[in-house]
Amino acid sequence: MSEHSEGKREHWGSGIGFILAAAGSAIGLGNIWKFPYITGENGGGAFVLLYLVCICVIGIPVMMCELSLGRHTQRNPIGAFRAITPKTSLLAHLIGLCIVLTGFGLLCFQNYGLGALLLLLGVAIFRYSWTVVGFAGVLTGFVILSYYSVVAGWVIGYFFKALRGGLDFKNTTEAVAEFTRSTGDVSWCIGFHVFFMFACAMVVWGGVKSGIERWSKILMPLLFLLLYVIILRSMTLPGAMKGVSFLLSPDFSKISSRGVLLALGHAFFTLSLGMGAMTTYGSYVSKKENLFISSLTIVGLDTLAALLAGLAIFPAVFAFNQAPDGGPGLIFHVLPVVMNQIPLGGFWVALFFVLMFIAALTSGISLLEVVVAALMDEMKMSRHLAVLLSGTVIALLGCLCAVSLDSWDRLPALHQLLQQTFGVGQSSFFDFMDNISSNWLLPLGGLMTSLFVGWIWGTRGAVNEIRHGADNFADVHLMSLLSGLREDPHHNNPQYHVLTLAAIWGIFIRFVSPVAITIAFLHLIGWMKI
Ligand code: TRP
């Protein structure tokens, strides 16, 4: 099937083009905006270490699941799951049954909204089995992009402010006031949000090779160049070393269980995992590429970008004695104040926002591409119609986020609906979208993907896919039983090492990642205290 459809589907023009596009998806506001502020709030070095552990234990294995699933099926996430799902899957029925029973239970306790939702979900799982995971991924794309592009809109707005010299604050109080004023200005937020959506749509409009790949090849090297320039500036400030040491010296007394969960959720978000973005990008990869090395490279570049962003920001923050735990506004509040105290400050701030815009753009296009690919494959739409339709819907959804940034005041009806469905609500629609996607949909999507690849498609099928272009990866012995590679014809060959990469990977996706994510969930819903 894959050979048959490979002819028609558009593919990346080169291996490096694919790596840059995928790294572009991974490197985004998550690295440059979110990673520094959650590191600042959670004690610096120790949190960084935790985050690195999550990246290795869960990030790399799940990345390989998504890429191989995409390349094997040559489909969008919905089609990918549908192509491999067997006629009957006991595991899916079991999960469906649990969900239906929970739904009934909730109805009995008069929680009608969530109860009905779970019933619906359970029935969908009975009917469509694992395909539901792909479908949920595409929906998650809508959810994330709608609030992501609002934040990206602030970045563009702040860039213009910096150009006009509108960011020369004396202290953080002034900067905070300006941030609150700007983000409270609905037309400012909506204007730049729509502008950003338009930019994403323009790139995706051009297609895989002459849109996404071409722009990634230009923008990603530029992004790293800008990052280095800003780091050079930041590290040569007097007193900068305090910032470096904050980032690199772990103090484990500062680690809380909330920090562990944040690190886990962020690992998914920053690597664009859990909703099929990498499945979609994987479906454009040729059989010649080495998916193992590609995954390592993408994850490595993403981690590098996060650490570099930390090195760009914390030295500046500490050099001017600012607090590192400024929260989501860290970059918007602190950076202009800090930079204002050095020559050409406005220039550096503007440069920084250009950098953030580039990062956001290459991530935004990957989110849009998931939806577009699904519409193209499943509804047989043309690319242009799909871009137009999904871009408009997401832009409208984003407008709702923009009018409800820190309170529900403007959306009382929606607030009531969501509160009746999900119980205790977030403080705004923006918050709701962020919370439901990063804390729930992505980890759940990642959990289901690794269970699906490890137990339903089977490690053996996946490894056979990865073997194309990566034969060193897959020759197996002893551990084959535990990892599900028992029937592999190579597993008995005595000249191979006992432990192979494929076997380790199998164990990770079958046991380690699912268990780790499940523990995090049990903790999140309060059933388990770590
Ligand atoms: N990874 C991007 C960031 O760090 C955001 C992103 C792009 C994303 N595509 C995604 C997150 C798909 C989850 C899923 O900013």
Task: Write up what this structure looks like.
- The chain has 530 residues and is mainly alpha-helical.
- It has a single domain, classed as Hydantoin permease (Orthogonal Bundle).
- It contains 22 helices and no strands.
- Helix 2 (15-26) crosses helix 17 (345-379), helix 10 (186-205) packs across helix 11 and helix 15 crosses helix 16.
Q: Tell me the helix content.
A: over 70%
Which molecules other than protein and nucleic acid are bound?
A: tryptophan
Tally of strands: 0
Shape: globular
Entry summary:
Helix content is about 75%, strand content about 0%.
Give the SSE map.
Layout: H1 2-6, H2 15-26, H3 29-41, H4 45-73, H5 77-84, H6 90-108, H7 112-128, H8 131-163, H9 172-184, H10 186-205, H11 208-235, H12 241-248, H13 257-270, H14 277-282, H15 291-319, H16 330-339, H17 345-379, H18 383-403, H19 412-422, H20 429-467, H21 480-483, H22 501-524
Helix pairs in contact: 2-11, 2-15, 2-17, 3-13, 3-15, 4-5, 4-13, 4-15, 4-20, 4-22, 5-8, 6-7, 7-19, 8-10, 8-17, 8-18, 8-20, 9-16, 10-11, 10-17, 10-18, 11-15, 11-17, 12-15, 13-20, 15-16, 16-17, 17-18, 20-22
The chain binds tryptophan.
Give me some keywords for this one.
single chain; 530 residues; mainly alpha; Hydantoin permease; 22 helices; disordered N terminus
